[in-house]
Each structure stands twice: as C-alpha cells, then as structure tokens.
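User: quick one - fold this with zinc ion bound?
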Amino acid sequence: MTIKTSNLGFPRLGKNREWKKAIENYWAGNIAEEELNQLLDELEHENIEIQRLHHLDSVPVGDFSRYDHILDASLLFNIIPKRFQGREVNDDLLFDIARGNREHVASALIKWFNTNYHYIVPEWDDVTPCLNTERLKQYYNETGHFHSVIPGPITFVALSKGGEQSFEDKVRTLLPLYKEVINHVSAKGADYIQLDEPILVTDQASDLKAITKEAYEFLAQESDGKVVLQTYFERVDLSFVAELPVYGLGLDFVHDNGYNLKQIKEGLFPSDKVLYAGIIDGRNVWASDIESKKNLIETLQEYVSDIVIQPSSSLLHVPVTLEKEEIDQAVLDGLSFAVEKLDELYALKQLFNEQDAALYEQLKERYTRFQNQGFKKLDYQYDAVRASRESSFETRRVLQNDALQLPELPTTTIGSFPQSKEVRKYRADWKNKRISDEEYQSFLEHEIKRWIEIQEELGLDVLVHGEFERNDMVEFFGEKLEGFLVTRYGWVQSYGSRAVKPPIIYGDIKWTEPLTLKETIYAQSLTDKPVKGMLTGPVTILNWSFERTDLPRHVVQNQIALAINEEVLALEQAGIKVIQVDEPALREGLPLRKEYHEDYLEKAVHAFKLATSSVDDRTQIHTHMCYSQFGQIIHSIKALDADVISIETSRSHGDLIKDFEDITYGLGIGLGVYDIHSPRIPTQKEIATAIERALQQIDRSLFWVNPDCGLKTRNEEEVREALAVLVQTVELFRKNQ
Ligand code: GLN
Ligand code: ZN
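Assistant: Sure. Structure tokens for the protein plus zinc ion:
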C-alpha cells in the first residue's frame, strides 16, 4: 500500500522575513502596490517550490495570506465590518480592517485556538454576504498539483461575532458561496479542498453536530469538489465526523492525547474515506522520532486503506528553516523547522513506497544521537525546595508591613519603562559587538539612574529598575539559562506582520549565573525606597518558548521554576525586599478542552509556588497578569499565594473586581487604574473613580495602585505625565481618608 504526502499550510514569513518587510514597507509608503504584489508573488512561488522539491503529492494553496487567513475569508465572502463598508474590496481595505485607520478602529484580534497566532474576528453586523470573485485567485494555482485551503464554514462562523442571524443561519447563508468557491477551484484543478474545521476539536463541537451535518451534506450534494474536512490541535469525535459525506478526514495524531488513534483502533474510521494523517508535529521545532512515526503509519494501515501523511497542523506555527542557523551540531541534530519537517515526510514516503531507507536511517540516527545527550539528563532535588511559604499571608503581611513601611494605597509600576530608540540602539550595537560590554553596561546604569530619579521625583513608593536590558520578557531569560537556545532566524508569525522568536528549550534547565541581579542591586543602591526585583514566571516562560516534548510539560515547568527560585533567592540575599514574578501567560496556556484545565492549573500553581516560596516571610512576592477574564481561574490565582497581584482592569472594571470579591480573595491587589496601551493621559477623575469603585469591595489596606501593564511601549513624556496624575490622585485619597 503506497502512502502519499501533503501539507496543511506553510509559514508565510519567508527565510529572511521577506513577507514582513514587504508588507511593512508598503504600509510605510516605501514601496508601491505593484512592488508589494511582485515581492509577495515571488515569495509565494518560492514557498510552493520548496514544498514541491520535497515531493509532496499535493501542496497547499490559499494559506499564503497578506495578513490573516480568517480575514481573507471574510473579504472573500464580503463579511465587511459595518464601519468599513462601501469601499472597494481590496488589500488596502484588508489592511485597514486589520490595523484600523484614522477614522475607524481595527477589528478584534483573538488567539487562534491554543496557539500564539492571532486571527481577525469577522464582524457580521449589517453585512451583505456574497462572493468577491476577484479574491478567489488566492485559492488556486495554475501549475502542478495543489489543494485549496479554506477556513471551513462551521469554524468561520464560530469565530465570528455580531449580526442578527443565528449561528445556523449564518452557516446557511455562506453555504452557496462555499459551493461556488469549491466548484471554481476544482475547475482550476484543485486535487481536493481542505476545509479547516478546528472548532470541531473543542468542547463546543458537541453543540454543532446538526449544523455541521447539514453543511457538509449540502456541500456534498451541491458542489463537485473533493472536500477534506481538516481538524487539528485536539481529537475529534470520530463516530460523528465519519458519517459526514466528505472525501477525506484530516486528523491530528500528535496533539490528540492519544484519542484519535484510539478511535481508529476501535474501527471507527470509515472505509470509504481517505485519512489525512497528521503525524509530524506542526507546532513544535523537534525532529520527529522517525521510527515511532513509521510504527504509527503501520498501525494506521491495519485499519485504513487510503492514507496521506502530513504535519499535524499548518506549519505556520514553526520557523521556516534551519538552513542558516549556526547552532552546535549536538543540538541541531534534534531540531526540525518547516522545511526539515518536509524532509521527514519524504523520508517516510521513500521508506514505504520505494523501500529506500537511506534518508530514514539518517534521520533516525540523528534523532537517537540527540536524545542521548548529557544536557538532557540532569538530576533535580525538587523536594529540597519549598513549594509553599513558611507562614500564612496574615502572618507575612504583618512582618512585611513592618519591614517595608509603605504608606496606605502604595503606588508602583509593572516593571518596564520606555524602550526608547536609544535603548534599542544601544542593545543592538552591543549585540552586534559595535560597542563594548563596559559601554553597554554604563549606558544601562545611566538609564536606570535617570529613571530611579524620575520615580523618586514622582513620589512612587515601590520602584523598579526599568528592564532596559531586556528585549523581551522571555527571550531575555532564555539567553541566560542553561538548556535554552535562542535562534537567529527562528521567527514565527504572531499576528499580522508581527513575528516572535520563541526560545527553544532543548535540554535540562539550570540557573548558572544571576539573571537580573546586577541591574536590580544597582537600582537599589540609588534609593532608600524599596526596588522591586522583576522576573518572568515558569508558566509564562514555558508557554512562550518551544518546549521539549520528550519530558512531560510539568517537569520542564518545574525545572524552570527551580531556576527562577535561584534568582529569587539571589535577589533576596542581596537585600531586595520585593520581588515580582510575572505570569501573564497563565491563562492563555489553558488546554483547549475543559477536562484538562484542572490538571493544568494545579501544575501551573505548583510551579509558581516552587519558584517563589523559599523566601523569608518578610520578603514580599508580587505577581502580574494582564488580561481580564479571571472568572474561571480565580481560585488558582488565589492559590498562587502571592502577597500582591497586579492586574489589568482598565478595560473591564466592575466585572473583574467582582471575580476577586466572589471568593473573598483576601491577598494584596494592585489594580491597573489606567490603560497603558493608549497614549492618552488619564485624568485624576478617571483614576479616582477606578480606585473608589475598587475600594467599595476590596479592603483598603490590601489595595495597591498601578498602571495596567509595563510601560515599555509609551514614551517618556507620556509616562511621566500619567504617573504624576496617578500619584497625585492617590495622595488625595490618603489625605481624605
Ligand atoms: N514586567 C513586564 C513589563 O513591565 C510585564 C510585561 C507583561 O505583563 N506582559 O514589561
Ligand atoms: Zn502586563
């Protein structure tokens, strides 16, 4: 039985981030539309060529977006936000919807399932759905084998908002348009049409069965293309999707917690369909255990006759290629980016179809060599580290008040101060060795000193050093901890033209040198007020890195926790009395399915506590989170047992405080009293209202006042003015108490 190979999507960015550069140059007015089109056409062509060179039996077309594939579908179906209606439907409209323009705000940006990619939310208010036929071009290709990749109708509607129609009616409105698209691309030669339906792997799927059935029955009857219902990121209910009249089913065998395979073994895969088997991890950077992939294919073959192997999801979520990386061979052996994943598919295809094991053996050997490296085998003494504070919060609180002597309603900031052009230039110059370590260090000290003085002048109570040495709150730690690798070209699209370069956790993690000590101690030496140490927590570091998959996630998380604990203790030893451990990613790391939430939260809380509990009762631990839907995880946040939490609230006042009130939170809370995402300076009245509202429910003696989040994206003047208003407002409260 021969197998075929395919792919669900390829990174858009290009080997040198050409995609991002072209689009940003177009936005800046540096290049004209024709040039943008030419650059992007070339890049798309290159992406397709790379995939063809790897002998894929079919390459994806349609995934190469200029911003986001969901937004592409919105424009294709004429689902245009009301405020942008009446304009020609072209790429300028697309960019305006995505980014906003002078008159109108952008559409919302939301996380794509449990990835760090973000899509643009379709808005259905007052829309007139129809097919914009000139936008169909994106979904086919004039030469060679391809399949069209289009968001499926159920997922598209599920991710939408607004409009009067019911969910079902929205789907029904779209179906005739889908039919036209399918017929059109089929006529253009599409081998099949990949309709992406990741919504079917979520808890919501069980409520969507009737409309899913109706939709796919309609498409089977009315259109004449071969439809593959593609799922990923979790398991599907196979007994349900098996009934749908589609040509093929795409299942994820990597992120399904074993359930897709289990269902196949139960004989649930229908004999009349093709299995598009997602066997290579589309979301991580690791070379596959190629032998286990071979075994998986053999197992699948016992139950299914027609198999296409492919990545578990679009390769959008991984960097393009290792080609130009200069990484130690010992680690390189273990890695596989998008292009290298295509090699893995090809190796398996050669093995099965041609009995040619050359590439397969080579990959197998590399994999084995990597797994046996010493850097993966450290010993840890978890039991030697405390996982809960010595005394209760009530006891600690008294001791801390005594040690810190803060006024009531203490004021502080979240950590970062403006990353000015100068700051970024110095850092780049230092990284590229244009300036010496000494020069860089003395610049950092100069900047820290300047900002300590500013904070004293403003009258803030707990000061920060400003995080000028950091590019990013995770990459910075990745550069310093053992077991992490920071690549040069490992970029992944986060949203629009924004790309991130997550560090890669390749080995056991170890703290070998202080991470933040020098800057923090220096800042503290300049003032009598307490300077708050500033660290990123284990849950966030793990979530924003490419994690190891050869160890359970929580083990890696605990390793990071021990490393952070070392830094916490080093800071404490150096006389730092307040230490903040940020966990902004705690909530976004929640697994897709609810059944796994409790386990995830329990382990996350444990890791945070491992990282922070060893300190003396008098040392005050802060944490920070910047999102507002706390409801479902509020118990876990309380369980972190941080002495003070600072949170974003300026966009959701009442609700949020209620979350904390509902369980009588009882620990220190710093409320974000103004929105740092906007350059607008808050008024005293606004801040006073926010404080008053909070004080109706939260004990005054537990209450802190701070901005929403770090101030790195604001400029100096905005920061000075806004913080001055904040401090003045608090002084009024203190006087009128
Ligand atoms: N301490 C970080 C900062 O101030 C926190 C950033 C975040 O919450 N994402 O920038
Ligand atoms: Zn924040």
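One thing worth noting: The longest helix spans residues 437-458.
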